[in-house]
Please model this.
Amino acid sequence: TPMEDIDDMLQRFELPVSRITFGPTAWKMFKLDPQYKELINLDFSPQMAGNSNLPLGPMQQMKEQTMFVGRLASANNVPMFVDNRTYMDNDGTVKRYTGVDQVVFETSAGAGWRCYAAIQNILAELKAVPTFWRAWTTTESDLPGHFIQLESAPLLAHTDINSTGVINTAG
Model:
């Protein structure tokens, strides 16, 4: 059953899961579980929030097309969402943040490192530094003035790789 798959996945993580996000098709499959009504806690009261806060208010839910659908009672009331958000890829195609057939498990207890790539500016000598500041003045153009530029190339690297996961329900 879908719930058995979710329970199996929850047992694999090193850190507690703080959010489960479904694609729309995966959510429909989960709701087909005969025990669905017993598995979901639809109490939206603040007392049910525990240590985690409800991250999306009604206006954000409409704007971001992310819908809070309840809490998984058998997993310490982990909040569950259905994600319908899309973005425009560099090649011009529209893609989904969460695949229609995916279930994504996230934790808020993870740790990581902030890494830096080389700044793509010859004046920064192509070094990997947190920030590169540059200031200059120009009087030779139509818009003379003082200019300040800041460049940074951070990459957040999660060090607890066994604390997030995805189930692909189709295939």
Summary: The helical segments are 2-12, 24-31, 36-39, 58-64. The CA atoms of residues 89 and 133 lie 30 Å apart. The first helix runs from residue 2 to 12.
